[in-house]
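Q: Hi! First time asking for a complex rather than a single chain. Here are the components, and I think there are two in total. Is that enough to go on?
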Amino acid sequence: VEEEMAEVNPPKATATTAKKNAGKGAKAAEAEAEADAAEQIAEEAMIDVSILAREVEGLRRRDGELQVQLENLTMRLGSFWGADSISSGIAEIIGELEPLRYLVPPQTGEGLPNATVRALHRLRASLARPDWTSVTSLGISEPIVFPIGAPTGTPDGNTFGSARRNGVES
Amino acid sequence: MIQQLVQRIITATGATTEQAAAQVLTADPTDLFAHMEQVWDAANVWSAPGPGPAGGIMRQLWTYGQFGTFAPTASPAWDHFGYAFALESTRAVQIFRRVVHEFRSGESLGMPSVFTQQWLGATESLLYGSGGVLGGGLSTSLVRPDAEGVRRNAYWRMFGMDLAFGADDNRPFAYDKAAANNGTFVALFEELLYELWQAMTNLRNSSGPNTADDDRIFRIAEQLTYELRVRRQYSLLAREELAAATALGWIELTLSTNTPVVIELRAQATNAADRLKIIGQRVALNPHSRASSFFEMATSLSMLLRTLEAGYVSGPEFAWLLYSASAPAGSPPLPTGAAPLSAESRRVITEWSVASGRDLKTRKLPVRIESRPPALVR
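A: Yes, that's all I need. Here is the structure of the assembled complex.
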């Protein structure tokens, strides 16, 4: 106010007062600059505050929407599975899906072509062999062999051994 | 061929296994040779025009033979070379050579019964080169006189493998090692067995990582098909395969149960490997220490190799044939007798691991986790 008054009604210039006035002018200029800077900072801060306020408002609105969505999901799952919480609903879903895992075929193979099926069948048939697991011996009884030239035959009249092999009937 | 003949007798006549086996083991070797020609003719591997490759005399011969009415309806009715290789790896052929030698040259093993004398005649004919005029099917001649050498040559060509032992006096066995051989067969086959095991362990897997790789199984199977077939162009080695399967089938039948010759050698036991071990002790020649595994896997290996060679796994969608116990859900069921090869594959995986000493259920080297990333991605 003093500075403004001084400008409107300048005092009579003397050497001393001139010096004093010059010092006062510099200080006033500094003060004016500081005031301008403070005003600018305040304006910027106001802008930032308004931006932040808008963002906070948006977040609150978004939070509200998410809360609504979450409640909707919880309600839908709970009503569908007859349970009250998401975790119990998911557990029931897993329980329902578990047996389905074992229904998946072991590999994604395809049926053999007919020609291959027939060939495989023939191969198995051609290489078929007896099962020896229960066979302990052949159970062959040795024939009674008579010395060459000796009389052949047994008391009951049957022929054995060398006589039979040589085609000789007693 | 021998075990299949026993089965055909059982099927056709209703005989018991014991009766059918006795018929074969006491047969005249000429009848066995004639039937072998009949089996060869039925297979007709050269696709000869007309009835088959056999000539008129041979046809008459098997008609009069003991087994002429037991012709195979499905062919080829003999096992794969893999069967012969597995059984020969037990050293049974060399052990029985000594048995025949001892019986024929003295009485150190006792007096052979009538049955054993009949068996000795057939064994000498089928295995040790006394086939005579009808023995042409045994793939031996003055040019290649040793039947074991012929078989070793075939194993080398088909699998790039030699038997784990030399001659019966432990000298290196000399035979023709062909330059053209499937040297990568073993590595490929073991890789297939590893992948099959991975697939088997994941058959019921419903969660977690699944290491089954059908595409890799298919590619390895396909590569094995190519390798085996390349040695079989124009049905090469088929005749040798029939001779090998017949010879080793005879050995297997002899040891399948306590046959009279086994009893006479006082080698009664509950399985073929133990019988062979005792017989080996009688003639001072030990069998392979893993003979039991070779006996157990012989037939399964035959089936698996036949399937691979036939190329049934023609795409990754058919890889299940080699490791699944049933056809996949949704596909039409296989007819009776045409089951997948799950059981055979499992048997081969287990026994091959034991016989070779290599664990096929794990990788040789575990997957290494680097403590820091390689330089290129730093």
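A: Chain B touches chain A through 62 residues (CB under 8 Å). Let me know if you'd like any chain examined more closely.
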